Amino acid sequence: MTPEEILQGLYDETLVGNAPRVLELTEEGLATGMEPQTLLFDALIPSLEEVGARFERGDFFVPEMLIAGRAMAGAMERLRPLLAETGVQTIGKFLMGTVKGDVHDIGKNLVNIMLEGAGFEVIDLGVQVAPEKFVSAIQEHQPDIVGFSAFLTTTMPMFKANMNALEKAGLRDSVVVMVGGAPVTQEYADAVGADGYAADASATVKKAKALLHEKRSKVPA
């Protein structure tokens, strides 16, 4: 296959979530001497962006997004160490976790894949993340953005508990806070004092990029 055919194949197969084929094409591309960043930026990311666009238009639903995300994640596993070797610049660091009391992670995992695909370094703390764990992880990793995810109305008050913990630790001004999850609304995000809210994975990437740009443009040169 020519490099063009490999890139087109990667794009098409990621779009339909054919994970085994995406991995095969990734291996084939690398074997023929293609750069890992070419595979990522010329095929995988555009395909996932198209998945996001189709979701926004209502042509794709959560299952389609998930299988496309998983297909991309398989390729990323293979490419991540190679990209690190080539020193590909990440656009920012995003720390993510599902709040204490909540074990839902499908939405969070999908957001992570989309963020990673968009060039963010993602640190995933998993589920049931207590406020003090968020605080220590922020101190350790120094992320640009921290994301709190909640799937249940009963766990949404943890957003406020997390915000209070950040305030108490003196970290509130050093990170951008984003919140999300099925029951969460913009109004609720505003009420708890978050910097950003997004309704789905595709919107999260756009919002995260915008907030990061805003944060960096405020920093004095």
Architecture blueprint of SSEs:
Elements: H1 3-15, H2 19-31, H3 36-57, H4 62-86, E1 92-98, H5 106-117, E2 120-124, H6 131-141, E3 145-149, H7 158-168, E4 176-180, H8 186-192, E5 196-197, H9 201-218
Parallel strand pairs: 1-2, 1-3, 3-4, 4-5
Helix pairs in contact: 1-2, 1-3, 2-4, 3-4, 4-5, 5-9, 6-7
Short summary of the structure?
With 221 residues, the chain is of the alpha/beta class. It has helices spanning 3-15, 19-31, 36-57, 62-86, 106-117, 131-141, 158-168, 186-192, 201-218; strands spanning 92-98, 120-124, 145-149, 176-180, 196-197. The chain has a 5-stranded parallel β-sheet with strand order 2-1-3-4-5, with helices on both faces.
* Helicity, as a percent range: 55-70%
Q: Could you say how many structural domains there are in total?
A: 2
Instruction: Output the CATH topology of the largest domain.
Output: Rossmann fold
Widest sheet, order of strands: 2-1-3-4-5
- Name given to the CATH homologous superfamily of the largest domain: Cobalamin-binding domain
Series of secondary-structure elements, N-terminal to C-terminal: HHHHEHEHEHEHEH
Q: CATH class of the largest domain, anyone?
A: Alpha Beta
| The CATH architecture of the largest domain | 3-Layer(aba) Sandwich
Radius of gyration: 18 Å
- State the end-to-end distance: 48 Å
Helix-and-strand structural type: alpha/beta
Which strand-content bin applies to the residues?
A: 5-15%
Mean pLDDT, to the nearest integer, reads: 91
Uncertain residue ranges: none
Number of strands: 5
What does this structure look like?
The structure is a single chain. This protein is α/β, with parallel strands linked by helices and 221 residues long. It has 2 domains: 3-86, Methionine synthase domain (Methyltransferase, Methionine Synthase (B12-binding Domains), Chain A, domain 1, Orthogonal Bundle); 92-218, 3-Layer(aba) Sandwich (Rossmann fold). The chain is built from 9 helices and 5 strands, in the order ααααβαβαβαβαβα. The chain has a 5-stranded parallel sheet, sandwiched between helices.
